[in-house]
Write a structure and sequence with these properties.
The chain has 558 residues and is an alpha+beta fold. Helix content is 51%, strand content 13%. The chain is built from 15 helices and 15 strands. The strands form six sheets. Strands 3, 4, 5 and 6 form a four-stranded antiparallel β-sheet that branches. A hairpin with a 5-residue loop joins strand 14 and strand 15. Helix 2 packs antiparallel against helix 4. The longest helix is centred in the middle third of the chain and has 33 residues.
Length: 558
Amino acid sequence: MISAINTYTWNQTSHTKSFPDDILAVSYEDGKWSKPYYDCGGGNIWMLTYTVPFFAFKDAKYFFKGTSGIDIDLRRVDIDQCSLPEGSTKLNIFASSNKCKMDTTQCVSLAGFGFRRGSYKCVCRKGYYFPNITSTEKSFNGIVVEEEYEKLMLGKPNTYNIDINFQCKKCAEGCDDCVDFSPCIATYDIILRITILLLTLLVIGFLPMVAIFTFKYSDLKIVKAASPVLLQIIILGAFFMYTTIIVMYPTPNLVTCTARFWLREIGFSLTYGALMLKTWRVSQVFKVNSAKTVRITDKQLIKLLLLMIAFVTVILFIRTMVSPPHTIVGRTADNLKTDICPTDWWDHSFSILEVLFLIWGIRLCVMVRKTPSAFNESRFISIAIYNEFIMSVFLNVSMIFLKYPANPDLQYVIFFCHAQLTATVLLGLLFGSKALIIYKGEHKVEETSSHKITTQKLKFNSKQKHSDPSYESISDNKESAELQEIRILRTTIENLIEEFLKCGPAYSDYVLKLQAMLEVMKNSKLGESEELQQKLALSNGCVIKVDSNKDVSCTKKN
C-alpha cells in the first residue's frame, strides 16, 4: 500500500475530485521474467515475456484481477555463450555454453549476431597458433562449430569429433606467443660447444702429468729454485679455471651460474696469488743490500696465500647469500630467447679487484726485472702477469657488449680463449721451459758447474790476481800467506753469492749466510790484513794506494 492522489471516473467527461488515498501498487519485483522460449506457430521467433499482476477494488477491498505481460523479441538481443570471468557474479544463463575445444582455444563473444547460437569465435590460447598460417582470420567461427557439434549430437557425419579440427597447434618450446612453429629459443651450436669441451678436457688431462713432473724433478735445481709446492698450487688454480668452461657447457641455471663464479675467483686467487707471492719474495730478498737477515720460506708464503683465499671465500659467501646468482632471459640479435647468467655490481667489483691485484703484480715485475735468474723464471712470471692483465681487461669489456644482444656461443668461445690464453700460456711458460731444459740435458751442466764452482773460481781468481799489475808491485816472497788466503776467500764468497742469486729465492738462505760472512770479513780480518799489507809495503819502499774496493796496492819509489 502506498499513499497517492486518487480520483474516480464516472464517464469520459465526469470525474470526481482528487483526494488522498491509499492504493495497492505493483513494483518491478512483483513481476516475473519468463525463460527464453521459441514462439512456435506465432511469430516463430525467440521471445522473452515479463508478466506483472494487476488488482481490482471493490467493497473497499483489493482483489486479484489478472496479469499483464510484455513480450520481447530476442532476435536483436545478443547472447554470451562464453564463460564468465573468475569471481564474476553477473547473471548469464548462457554462460559456458560455447563449444570451443578448451584445451587449445578459448571463447570470445561477438556482438551483433542477435539471439542465436554461435555468437562467438574460438581463438587460440596463449602458447598456441592457428593451423592455417596463411589465413587472415586466425580463429574458428562459432556458428560452424555449433553446427558441427549439433551434427555430432544427432549422430550425423561431422568434423567436430576429429581431434585436429577446431584445434590450435602448440608453439615451439619457450614461445609465449607465436604465429607458426618458428623457434623462439636460441639453439646452441652443439658441434662448436662439444669441440671446446673436448679441448678443455684434453688440457685438464695434462695437469696430472705436469704435477707428476714437478714432483719427480723437485730435487733438481731448476725445479727446486721455483718452489715445487707453489708450482703445485698454481696447477690446482689452473684446474679450477679450466673447470669453469665445463660448467658453462649446459644451459645456464642456478647451480652453473654459482659454480662458474666460485671456480673462476678461487682459481684466479690460487694461480696468480702464488705467482704474486713468488715475485714479492724475490723483490724482498734482492732489495736487501746488507747482511740484514730477510728469510721468507715457502711455508710463510703458503700462510699468506691461505689468508688471501680465506678473504676471497668470505666475500664469495657473502655475495652468494646477499645476491644469489640466477638466470634471466636474454634476447639474441634474431630476437630469440636464451638463458644467461646476468652480471651485477658484485661481478664488476670482483673484476675491479682482479685488475688492481694484477696492477700490483705488474709493479712487482718491474721491481725484479733486473734480478739475475739462472732459468729466466722471473721473466716468464712477468710475461704471464702482463698477459693476464691484458686478457682480463679484454674479457670484462667484451662481456659488456655481449649482454645485448645475447650470444651464448660467442660468450662460450671467449671464455675458452681467455682460459687458454692465460692459464695455458702460464703453464707453458713455467713448466714448458723447465721440461725443455731437462729434456735437452742443460740442467746436468748447471748442476755440474754448481759443484765445481769453488775450485774453478779459486783457480780463476788466483790467476787473475797474479796477472793484475796492482799486485805485481808487492813481492810474492814477502806477501803474507794470511793476506793471500783472505783475498781468495773473499773473492770466492762473492762469486758464490753471484751464482746463488741466479738460482732464485730457493737459495736465499745461502745468500744471506754468505753475505753475513762477507760483512764480517770486511769489518775485521780484512782491516787487519790491510794493516799488515801496508807494513810489508813500507818495508819494501812502496807508495801505498787504496782503491774504492778497499784493495791495497803499492808502487816502488824511484
